[in-house]
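Honest question from a wet-lab person: if I give you the sequences of every part of a complex, can you actually get the arrangement of the whole thing, not just the pieces? Trying it with mine:
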Amino acid sequence: MERIIFGDNQFFAVNHISDEKSRAQSIKFKDDSAIIKTLDVAIAAGINTFMCTTHDRIANICEIIRKDPVKYQDFKIYPCMPYAHKYANAVTEMGIAGTLKQYVPGNFLGSILKGGVAYISKDYISIMELMIDAEMKMFKGINTPVIFIQNVMTDLLLGLGMDEFLIGFANYVRQKYNAEPGFITMNLPKLLDVLEKGGISNPIICASINKANFRMSGGKELYEKVLSEGRCRVIAMQVLGGGAIPASEALEYVSNLPNVESILFGASSKQNIENTVDTIRFYDQQRKEEVIMQ
Amino acid sequence: MVKIALIGAGKMGLSHLSILGAHPDVQIVGVCDTSKIIVDVLERYSGFKCYSDYLKMVEEAKPDAVFVSVPTKYHYTMVKELLKRNINVFTEKPFCLNPNESGELVLLAKKAGVVNQVGYHNKFVGTFKEVKRLVASSAIGEITHFQGEAYGPVVIKKKSETWRSDPSEGGGCLMDYASHVIDLINDIISPIESCKSSILKSIYSKNVDDSVYALVGTSSGATGIISVNWSDETYRKMSTSVTIIGTEGKIVSDANELKVYFKGDVLPKGYSKGWNVKYVTDLTEEVDFYLRGEEYSAQIDYFIKSVKRENKNNVNTFDSAWKTDTSISLIKNQSRI
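Yes, you can. This is the full assembly:
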């Protein structure tokens, strides 16, 4: 994985600290061309991996990328599924069974809902596999070396003790898409134990990691301990801690943590993108020099 | 270990179950749901003992406390049965279909001496907690007027019907969405006890209201406007906010960001004259397990601690939810005039 990965929250008005900023982003990125323009800025700054949710609009972005194979030759997307609000709103409107009917392709689910089919464990894992395929459709022809399950789903399954789905996700993504499975979570220490128990060693985990102790369930110290053990390949997200600490201080902290392979961030302006990239590179360089000096 | 059972594994129920499942002091002893597919998945993959009859579950599993997350119309009967058996109860919001039912349950809970809580999770949001603290300490002086708002994209086109679109089951924007705002105002300022006028408007739904606009008064003499619309797709998810105007300042807050303006020089600690901005990230305590917002984990943790008699059990009590049901019914009745 690359050291710096570009995220998509800003494109879809996801802002953890301000509804006003969220609306401003929604206006700024109304047209797909604005998203592409920002992605191009990120690429020019040396970032070639885009981590994004399976939002409907990403399908349009994929279309643009497919049409220009030369320009996007080295470009990679890490899909993150599912886009939770799509399903959450559907569940509110149609209930859980209604949502499954709407989103699971094919009609064998219909017979399960009617109770006409013998229930074997494999059925539910198969339903998940069908849903993965449905979410992956938009990425056809695009390089997706790591495929993630979103934190709301990871953590829901984690709390419910449904480890088999997490393991099933990993197996299917490897087998069908020849990709590495990734897990986004707000509960890194707990998830890692469960994945290891399920036979997944050194998993790719993307988690909130920041100096502000924001969304690090169990606390920053526990996270630092787990990181120091080097049991997983970590992508740090929410590194600014929701904006609670100055950016430079926040990036210094996360850049210097052991075993954080990549840093995920999103930004709207050219200046912010370039500043963030430069700052991370500066601290990385500084650390390398310190190692050489020792 | 606190033994917990849950009735209704729908959207909220599953969220509660997941948080409860990860809680170190909780043992889940039973789940009751009428959906075959849900029960099948929960039994197979989570290993929970599942039931289709909640009374049978209570009898067999002998829980210390029960979570009730079924459509509102069932709350009254189910909670009453649980109280009869002296079981601690956490129920989803809104509490009951009308304040008579909720009033009766308040008395029963008191008689049974059990822990009781309703799932108005906004009271566990850092910014709103701080708003309550500021108002309670008269930091912005006497409250003259307020605006309570919530907008979101629940019903954005004419479509299939669920219990949320049936008024007799507790559906509609007033019961489902506006209840959050009303409860928040009741808690932060004081209970809404009069309604001068109100409009309940259907936009896409056939049988229920999709938006609520009301002019109300509280027991403390403040007046305010309630403006709620769940058919607003310019919002990505539910956005709840309060604006409170006092003689010494003004508060504008949503779940993420708190803005306070102080007119004078008498200030609470950490604030200065003029505008102040605080973010939920600064006002939120870390939780042990995060699913969809710290507040969801915090309210469950609070309930568990109450059952273990480790706190006072005075947040989101049946009594406060009964007052909210009363305010809801005032707004509903006024709209018919």
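Two things worth pointing out. The mean pLDDT of chain B is 95. The two ends of chain B are 52 Å apart (CA to CA).
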